[in-house]
Amino acid sequence: MRPSLLAVFAHPDDECLLAGGVLAQHHAAGTRGAVVTATWASASRRAPELAEALAVLGPGSPRLLGCNDARNPEAAPGRPRLVDAPLDEVVGRLVGHIRDFRPDIVFGHDALGQSTGRPDHVRTHQITLLAVEAAGLAHLHPDAGPPWQPAALYAATHPESGVGLLRPLLEGMGKSILAVPDSYVTTSVDVTSWANTKWAAILAHRGEVARERLLPGVLARLPEADRTRIIQTEHFTRLTPGPTKGDPGQLTT
Length: 253
Fold this sequence. Notes:
The protein has helices at about 15-30, 45-55, 85-100, 120-135, 165-170, 195-205, 205-210, 215-220, 225-230; strands at about 5-10, 35-40, 65, 105-110, 150-155, 185-190, 235-240. By secondary structure, the chain is an alpha/beta fold. Strands 3-2-1-4-5-7-6 form a seven-stranded mixed beta sheet, sandwiched between helices. Strand 2 (about 35-40), helix 2 (about 45-55) and strand 3 form a beta-alpha-beta unit. Keywords: Zinc.
């Protein structure tokens, strides 16, 4: 039995780009899955696209923290930006989702903020670290439900050797690549069999695909073979409690 998964990402489309293959693979195997998105509100233009993408991948309806995007005030008008919101309050909301869903594994952004270091990605990583620990402690956020301790926390990441075609594409747009040393990666998953499903989910984010300087738009304009090479492998680092074979927190390769 594959472990249940809860993904926590900053923006709609991060779930597809960084872990769409793993989410689709686990869903097809009958495993429970869910996705929490930190920014954009349920009434925003991107919420229906997120719901469509998750319907393709299989992990259920969107779970939205509803914070504003650091760069786009239309994400959640009247709400604080994720990077400005009270830390304990946002952690408590995520703890509520963890305790409600009771996953074996939680995974999300790495400490670098995923390739280009977007501030919302970095903040989501920090919030996820705190929430995973707090979820198992009854004295923290007692109103968020009975405690639940996930078996493991993973960060989706990009190793130096795995950046490949992404580096010239992003550098050509004036963006840097923040990759981690290969030794930092504990699990690499070949999702070639799920590449078409992953790509269909990415395409559901139509607003991002239409923008040529965003990654979904860049991928949409590549030859299919190059695009598949970029999205066919997903890399993760186990952050806690450390690699242990055969336990419920082992992400299946």
